[in-house]
Structures are given as C-alpha cells and as structure tokens.
C-alpha cells in the first residue's frame, strides 16, 4: 500500500472532516470555517485549470499583504502542483516585475492594494483578489506529490538580485511536525496569533502550521504594537511569532498600556526569529510575559529551522541560538572543509528533512550552497562544549582589518545592549592603513554621546574590535524584507 503523500494541505483537509464548522482563519473582522476554506480551495482550483490554463509544474506569483485569501490561493495552487512565488508587497514595481519574470509565472494574483506593483507586469494573466472567481467545472487534474515545490519565496537580495528558494511540500510538512514537537503551541486546540508577513518563508510557516494541525489562526493584516499587545491580553492566543523589531515597538508603547495588559495573556510559546534578540530585551520579555515561554530560533529560507534556544536556556546561555533543531544535524567547518573544534569559528552547514530543493533556475548558486546534502548560507558560528551554537556573523559581512578577521555581528550584539542604542549596524570601509576600518551606524536616544559608548565598549570588547567611526542616523537602510543594507551604508560613508 502506498503511503499518503505529505502535502501541506493534507492536515487541513483532515481537520475539515473532523470539524467542518470550526473557525480556521480569522482576519480583520472576517472568518473562514474549515468547510468554507475547502470550498474556496476547490473553486480556485477549478478556475486555475479551466479558465487560467494552469497545470502541474507551472508557477504563479502572489502579491498581497496578509489576508485570508493568501492562505486560500497558496493552498489551492500548491495542492495541484503549481508552485507559488510569494512576492513581497513592499517591493518597487521594477523589483516585483523582475521576480515575476524570473519565476516564469503564468499568472499573477494580487491584492487591490498592490495594483500599482502589478502595472509593471504586462506579460502574464492577472487576477485581483476580491474579484469573483469564474464559474468552472470541477478540478480534475493530478494532485501534487510530496517532492513537488509548493512555494518559491525569494531571498532578500542584500548583495544582488534575489534568488527564488524552492521549498517542497515534504520539507514544509516536516517543519510543521518539528515545530509542534518543539514549541508545544501547535495542535487542534491551538489559537495562534500570526503577525509576520506571509510573503516571508517564516511568516507563512508559522501562520499556516495551525491549519495543518486543525487549530485556528488569527491573522493580523499588518503589525501594530498596541493591537498585538491588546490581542495577547484577550487571553485567547496560545502562541505568537515575532521578530526583534516587534518587541522593541511593543515595549516602546506608553507605559500605561504596557501595565494595563500585563499578566493577561494565555501564551505557552513566544517564538523569535530573523535577527538576534539583545540580552536586555530577552530579560524584558521574560520579566513581562513570564518564564518558560520564549524561544529564539535560528534558520534560513534555504535550511529551514536549524537551531532553537529553549526557554530554560534563555538567560543561561548568552548570545546563543541553541542546540540543533529537531531531526537536524550541524557541522562547523574551516575553509578547507574540515570540522573545527569547540569554541572555534567555522562555516555553519546543516542537514535535515526541511532543507530546500535548490534555487529556481540557479544551479550555480545551488551548487555553491549545497555540499553533499549539507546546506550553508554563509554564516559563521562557534559551538560550545555543550553543543550550543553561537552565530558569529555572515561570511560575506566579515571585516579583515590589519589582517585580523572581525565579525560585525559580535560587535553589534554588544553595542545593542547599551541603554542609549536602539539599533546598530557594523560594517567595513576600505582603509589605506588597515585594509578595512570598522564603522558603526546607529540609531540612538537623544543626548547620545559616542565617547561614553566607546568607554563602555572598552570594558567589553578587545581594542581591535572597537569601531573607528560612529555615525548616528535616524534609521538604518533596509530592503523590502527588513534586512539592513550594509552595502549601502559602506558606500555612503566611504564617499563621506
């Protein structure tokens, strides 16, 4: 007997059979029961086959902010073997058009708010979310296999054009199972608050997992700190995924609002990802929400979730991302490919059932990222004697000053712990004497004194790691995915 394929919609359909009238998705005053969700998926698939001419192996592009329809279209398309390129709705029209073209999309589905983006795309069919679906016969094409690509999110492209990351059904389902085991907030009884953009790989995974297990997901159209805190204070959500900037915004709210919502949540897991949480922020989160909740996860679109620092280790293991995730192996290697000993920096390779299937139409980049099944995105890390991992930096961000390898992330983590610093970025600028000089751009409070910061850092960093120049900025330049553009900082301040 052949086993049922692992599709991301398998659990959703099983949930619809168990509890068809249960609320699956809530968003902005709207709701979909599981039965309604299955009906919408069927209607989209019928239109896709009979009206839009889509077939197994095709690609489509989806451009939209968070909305119920986002889940519906992804589920419908990927179940019929049509991969979805999830385009960031914050991109420029030119950037969006490039991704649509690169993905060979046969159809663009877009939200009315994204109509301006789609104007630059004039070579494919389009469907606006909210328009009536054409009446069509029932979908009767083949379903996807578990090795088929379900989604093609695009990397942020901080050093060039973004690359499409092919993620299979099987890889994402295995991620769901591992998340359920690790975070304990995914089950048929769960009610997850999803606030991250669904166009990001992590945002979609953390938001869709409740549907796979038959729970409920409350989806926020966009992030608003006060709305999130009040939602959590309603005591309904048992899980939430946020990035460090979300926490910063929440604890920057008026103190009366913070105090009003204190102690009113029913969370069993708070998951953080995307960038490092400064240690003082971890302490603030734990003091406010309580012990036993905070997880800090490290991973990438390509490798999936690689490590997780569990609640009991948050204050015990400083600046750490935890041991390897469920069913994941980690190897730290030197430039010659040999395993490095503990406490020695090495390039991080990981291997597990949730890794990607390669870059879309980029076999050269795939070959560079994958070695004998081990995936690397160029991060440098060390492992302590307990097997816990500490991310040192991106290999491409490493600064070589005076012949010494310097890792900006290590310096950034320390600087971010200073009370007056809101956020910072450390980067290298060409220097005649040193090869590269260490520069720091930072967003700081009024009255900030960089001399005081220097004195503070001298007690915490080796002298050769101290920035040579500090530049206070109103905000750090970021791309549409929120990643800091150090290249832009380096170019701007090199000219200055």
Supply database-style keywords.
single chain; alpha/beta; globular
Can you describe what's shown?
By secondary structure, the protein is of the alpha/beta class. The protein contains 15 helices and 25 strands. It has helices at residues 10-18, 34-50, 68-79, 93-102, 115-118, 169-183, 201-212, 225-233, 244-250, 255-261, 279-289, 363-369, 408-415, 450-458, 486-495, and strands at residues 23-27, 30-33, 59-63, 83-87, 105-110, 125-128, 149-151, 167-168, 191-194, 216-219, 239-242, 269-272, 294-300, 304-309, 329-333, 346-351, 370-371, 374-375, 379-383, 389-394, 399-401, 404-406, 421-431, 435-444, 469-472. It has an eight-stranded mixed β-sheet with strand order 2-1-10-9-11-12-13-14, sandwiched between helices. Strands 4-3-5-6 form a four-stranded parallel β-sheet, sandwiched between helices. Helix 1 (10-18) crosses helix 2 (34-50), helix 6 (169-183) packs across helix 7 (201-212) and helix 8 packs across helix 9. The model has no long low-confidence stretch (mean pLDDT 91).
């Amino acid at each position: 007997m052949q086993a049922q394929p692992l599709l991301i919609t398998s659990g959703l359909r099983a949930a619809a059979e168990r509890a068809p009238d249960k609320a699956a998705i809530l968003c902005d005053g709207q709701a979909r029961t599981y039965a309604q969700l299955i009906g919408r998926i069927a209607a989209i698939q019928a239109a896709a086959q009979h009206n839009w001419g889509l077939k197994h192996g095709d690609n489509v592009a989806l451009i939209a902010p968070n909305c119920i329809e986002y889940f519906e279209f992804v589920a419908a398309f990927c179940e019929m073997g049509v991969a979805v390129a999830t385009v960031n709705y914050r991109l420029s029209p030119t950037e969006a058009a490039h991704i649509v073209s690169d993905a060979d999309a046969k159809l663009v589905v877009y939200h009315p708010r994204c109509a301006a983006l789609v104007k630059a795309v004039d070579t494919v069919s389009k469907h606006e979310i909210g328009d009536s679906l054409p009446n069509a016969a029932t979908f009767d094409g083949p379903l996807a296999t578990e090795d088929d690509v379900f989604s093609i999110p695009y990397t942020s492209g901080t050093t060039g054009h973004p690359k499409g990351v092919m993620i299979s059904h099987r890889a994402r389902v295995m991620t769901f199972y591992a998340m359920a085991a690790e975070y304990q907030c995914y089950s048929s009884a769960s009610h997850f608050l999803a606030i991250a953009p669904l166009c990001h790989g992590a945002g979609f995974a953390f938001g869709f997992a409740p549907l796979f297990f038959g729970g409920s997901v409350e989806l926020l159209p966009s992030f608003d700190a006060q709305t999130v805190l009040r939602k959590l204070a309603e005591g309904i959500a048992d899980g939430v995924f946020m990035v460090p900037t979300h926490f910063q915004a929440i604890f920057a709210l008026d103190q009366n609002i913070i105090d009003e919502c204190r102690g009113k949540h029913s969370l069993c897991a708070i998951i953080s990802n995307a960038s490092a949480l400064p240690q003082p922020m971890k302490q603030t989160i734990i003091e406010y929400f309580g012990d036993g909740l905070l997880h800090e996860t490290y991973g990438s679109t390509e490798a999936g979730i690689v490590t997780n620092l569990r609640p009991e280790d948050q204050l015990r293991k400083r600046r750490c991302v935890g041991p390897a995730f469920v069913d994941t192996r980690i190897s730290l290697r030197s430039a010659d490919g040999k395993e490095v000993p503990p406490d020695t920096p090495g390039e991080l390779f990981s291997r597990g059932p949730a890794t990607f299937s390669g870059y879309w139409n980029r076999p050269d980049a795939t070959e560079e990222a994958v070695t004998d099944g081990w995936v690397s995105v160029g991060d440098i890390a060390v492992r302590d004697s307990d097997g816990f991992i500490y991310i040192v930096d991106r290999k491409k961000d490493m600064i070589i000053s005076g012949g010494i390898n310097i890792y900006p992330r290590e310096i950034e983590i320390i600087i971010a712990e200073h009370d007056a610093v809101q956020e910072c970025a450390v980067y290298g600028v060409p220097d005649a004497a040193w090869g590269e000089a260490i520069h720091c751009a930072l967003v700081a409070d009024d009255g900030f004194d960089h001399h005081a910061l220097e004195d503070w850092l001298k007690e915490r960093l080796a002298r050769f790691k101290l920035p040579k120049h500090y530049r206070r900025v109103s905000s750090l330049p970021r791309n549409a995915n929120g990643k800091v553009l150090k290249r832009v900082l380096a170019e701007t301040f090199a000219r200055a």
